[in-house]
Prior knowledge:
Elements: H1 19-22, E1 24-32, E2 38-45, E3 50-54, H2 61-76, H3 84-92, H4 101-122, H5 126-130, E4 138-146, H6 149-161, E5 166-171, E6 198-200, H7 203-221, E7 226-230, H8 237-246, E8 254-256, H9 266-273, E9 278-280, H10 291-295, E10 301-302, H11 312-324, E11 328-331, H12 339-351, E12 355-359, H13 365-370, E13 376-378, E14 381-383, H14 396-400, E15 411-413, E16 419-420
Helix pairs in contact: 2-4, 3-4, 6-7, 8-9
Amino acid sequence: MSKQTGKNAASETATHGSVRDREIVDAKVIVTCPGRNFVTLKITTRSGVTGLGDATLNGRELAVASYLQDHLVPNLIGRDAGRIEDIFQFFYRGAYWRRGPVTMSAIAAVDVALWDILGKMAGLPIYRLLGGRSREGALVYGHANGRDIAEASDAVGRFIEQGFLAVRAQCGVPGVKKAYGVSSARGYEPAESELPAETVWNTPRYLEVAPKLFERLRKDHGNHVELLHDVHHRLSPIEAARLAKSLEPYRLFWLEDATPAENQHSFELIRQHSVTPLAVGEVFNSIWDCKHLIENQLIDYIRTTIVHGGGISHIRRLADFAALHQVRTGFHGATDLSPVTMGAALHFDTWAPNFGIQEYMFHTGETDAVFPHDYEFRDGRLHVGDTPGHGVALDEKLAKKYPYSPKQLPIARLQDGSMWDW
Ligand code: GCO
Ligand code: MG
């Protein structure tokens, strides 16, 4: 059988794109750096319909670009763009080498571009293809931070003034030169140098300051705003348990990445000691990374989003599995995820019955100009538009003006020089 034809091919109607219309004739990898690097895949069908998928993996962008260009693109040409599930399986099972962030980001770009094409051919936004609206808008949280507690509290106040109902708060740690999540003058963008910046971490100092930050935030801003915090994998399980317990009086919406989760059993220890809700998973790339965490209800929110988790097709499976165990979604949405991922994620958020919250950091004006989109922030929530597909475009001419610029994420060491988790 040829790549693109099936038995019932002839009976498919032109309204939904005939098999001939849907044949993939081009797939192009576009790397651009409008303020930061992004990798985008653009798939074109014979009928001229195009779809976009994000493949950005912060600090490892070119590995995914090559995976796409050298290994996936040659397999896409001639294939039926309508066979989204089969193409996912072809690349996931067919490659023999399963999972991993590079593979899953590349597959995600293909998958999202195909869902975009499906939406455009059907004349429907993706949330309608998934099953329709479950809510009016997706609750989002912004990033407030400060060099000390007072500055962080002022920053939280500014987010509340802008209408945010949920805010993540981070502050500097006395004695630590560059604490995770605290902005430089240019705003928070962790991949800032060609080779990784070295930072030094101090757990006891951090464990002292974190509860004080939230005590102050509740005092200054009351009990109704939702507050979140990201530990960024910097604690051992027992330290994480201690922090989660000490934060209980301040009723966090979630405590994120309290400890690394390669060993999913680690979270059992945190759970035994605390009722602070837990979120994890921005570095995961498949359902297998969180199977034990979810089925044992060791977490409350799963953070794995579309770009690093194989696209809509795989993340839908993950979200449905999470729903069985009352775990909600809380997608990663830092600036290294392009507006294409944000657009696709918001369609998912609008549909998913077990949606929890969506992270929302503002992209720069340059990024927004390269990726025009129809989602918008209103009253603490992001709202998708009704443009067919995911509603995010790419200005290729403008993108060309911003060539790739090598940047890596920082690393962290302990005071004695040993490597730690950044
Ligand atoms: C978050 C994340 C980011 C990551 C970044 C890595 O919760 O938003 O922790 O700040 O560090 O996305 O590429
Ligand atoms: Mg995080």
